[in-house]
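Support request from a user on the community tier.

User writes: "When I paste my structure tokens into the form, the page sometimes reloads and wipes my input. The last time it worked, I copied everything first. Here is what I submitted, just in case something in the input itself triggers the reload:"
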């Protein structure tokens, strides 16, 4: 099986978030895709299949399980298809995912040429032990910014958004992923997304890290598209609720040496529904083969 390695949310190989891409996966079973994702070893691998409802079907697998949606996996896969000449003449491509049918815009701009619509945002309250939660990522309750709520959020994939006071706390974080399910009684398989409003770069609005559910078979995600998308919806819902729209740059990955940026666009309709789009780039690193027997 031929696999393309793309680094998403960066134009520099070795930065951003690595993803595997398998272009012609229509003949593979879910079990074979899962085995391939484990052999490939990236946080996510995207498998591209035919679709009767959209241009393509995208399926996303971590080494441990299938996901409904993956932002960096989508960016890497679409960039790969463009590089292989599979999207000639298209300005929009539609993808069928388990989070719905989503359009991807292909723009002629250097920094953020790929624009991905995400699923409608959802939020659920967190009622667990805040002190134990902070300790599970190597911090204390004093590091929690209680001016903003801890909530579960999703624009296709659920994560727990945790506001942190100081940027300096992010270098000190040490996740104990095995503890997460017991602390997340409402949604035990959820990842953790601590963020703060202090940033390293002037153009960024938030800084974040993203710690995987132990069921994923990974520890940390360098630059997370779906979590950045729901972070944009969180911004419009809890931080600046008086705004009807916003564009924010979210920085992530610095503590892993894989820094990257996600551009998030959010807008509120007259019925208060929030539309979420993320924009980014991706770069090919190499291609290789795996044998799953």
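"...and here is what came back when it finally went through:"
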């Amino acid at each position: 099986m031929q696999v393309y390695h793309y680094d998403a949310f960066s134009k520099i190989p070795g930065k951003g978030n690595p993803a595997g891409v398998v272009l012609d996966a229509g003949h593979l079973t879910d079990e074979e895709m899962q085995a391939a994702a484990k052999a490939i070893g990236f946080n996510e691998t995207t498998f591209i299949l035919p679709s009767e409802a959209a241009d393509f079907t995208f399926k996303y697998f971590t080494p441990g399980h299938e996901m409904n949606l993956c932002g960096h996996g989508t960016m890497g896969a679409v960039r790969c298809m463009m590089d292989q000449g599979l999207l000639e003449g298209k300005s929009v491509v539609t993808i069928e995912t388990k989070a719905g049918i989503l359009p991807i815009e292909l723009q002629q701009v250097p920094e953020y040429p790929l624009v991905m619509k995400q699923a409608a945002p959802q939020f659920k309250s967190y009622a667990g032990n805040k002190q134990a939660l902070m300790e599970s990522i190597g911090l204390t309750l004093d590091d929690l910014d209680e001016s903003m709520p801890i909530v579960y959020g999703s624009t296709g994939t659920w994560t727990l958004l945790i506001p942190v006071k100081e940027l300096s706390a992010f270098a000190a974080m040490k996740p104990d992923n095995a503890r997460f399910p017991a602390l997340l009684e409402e949604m035990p398989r959820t990842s953790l997304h601590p963020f703060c409003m202090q940033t390293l770069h002037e153009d960024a609005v938030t800084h974040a890290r993203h710690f995987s559910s132990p069921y994923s078979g990974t520890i940390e995600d360098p630059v997370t598209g779906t979590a950045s998308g729901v972070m944009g919806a969180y911004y419009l819902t809890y931080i600046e609720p008086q705004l009807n729209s916003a564009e924010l740059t979210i920085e992530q990955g610095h503590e892993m040496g894989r820094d990257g940026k996600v551009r998030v666009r959010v807008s509120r309709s007259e019925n208060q529904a929030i539309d979420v789009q993320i924009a980014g780039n991706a770069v090919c690193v190499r291609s290789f083969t795996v044998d799953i027997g």
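Agent notes: The reload is a front-end session timeout and is unrelated to the input. The domain at 2-117+281-289 is CATH 3.10.310.10 (Diaminopimelate Epimerase; Chain A, domain 1). The chain has a mean pLDDT of 96. Escalated to web team.
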